From TrEMBL, chains A, B:
Residues 6-104 form the HTH hxlR-type domain. It comes from Halobacillus faecis. One of its GO terms (molecular function) is DNA binding. Pfam families: HxlR (PF01638). PANTHER family: TRANSCRIPTIONAL REGULATOR, TRANSCRIPTIONAL REGULATOR, MARR FAMILY. This is Putative HTH-type transcriptional regulator YtcD. It comes from the Bacteria. SUPFAM superfamilies: Winged helix' DNA-binding domain. The gene is ytcD.
DNA sequence: TGCTATAGGCACCTGGAAGTAACAATTGTA
DNA sequence: TACAATTGTTACTTCCAGGTGCCTATAGCA
């Protein structure tokens, strides 16, 4: 049984860490295959991706869909509960965008894909 | 010069880590003295508190107000720029609250202060 | 026969985030 | 004289999130 001093800690327990917010932002745009996520997040390793996806799944915010075919195909998408995070995630993304613009006026220099 | 694959990473660079979101949530409610923050966050150490406050300050989201008196008095409050985070932080806090209610129906068991 | 693509498991290791503990500085006060 | 209160610094240490590398299974194809 966890103990929180302030409710927001419960949110951080679910979406905290280096990768989960990024994963969820990608899943807001679209459901994604494992290999897609890896491509979208060049810095993540297979192990971390799997691990973070497992944790998000066991927290009930994403769902894993396995297609029985070879080579394997697995898709991840937000659950209904996961969609309740959309508001917070969207605002975080928007803030990140304008923070880049404010901090680096020519943002091409810091945005890798785009 | 940092490199981001997705804009939200810029937000995580500012409010990521174990403590910053919690600190900011407390500063949304009120400006706070150092000792108040320590009391509100029983788990944090003096060193981590100072360190996180310094980083938030150099990112321009909080401001440090020193009163020339002994013993020292220092207050921290959000800057105008820091207030642009309010939307995202509020939604995160709200999500945390309802996540606790959903996960632990009698939330008294997991909420320490309140 | 060997290579590809896909998703993932597992053992081990490391870097840096976070924690610990001691110290400084100043003034009032018991 | 010694301690309290407040904020902060510094050196040292610990620990685990995250990284590395190697392994599995399966079917198709050159």
């Amino acid at each position: 049984m966890p103990k929180y001093n302030i409710p927001v800690e419960a949110a951080l327990e679910v979406i905290g860490g280096k990768w989960k917010v990024v994963i969820l932002c990608h899943l807001i745009e679209n459901k994604r295959r494992t290999s897609e996520l890896k491509r979208l997040m060049p810095g993540i390793t297979q192990k971390m991706l799997t691990q973070q996806l497992r944790e998000l799944e066991s927290d009930g915010v994403i769902k894993r869909i396995v297609y029985n075919q070879v080579p394997p195909k697995v898709e991840y998408e937000l659950t209904e509960y996961g969609w309740t995070l959309k508001g917070a995630l969207d605002m975080l993304c928007a803030w990140g965008e304008q923070h880049i613009e404010k901090t680096y006026p020519n943002k091409e220099e810091v945005l890798l894909d785009s």
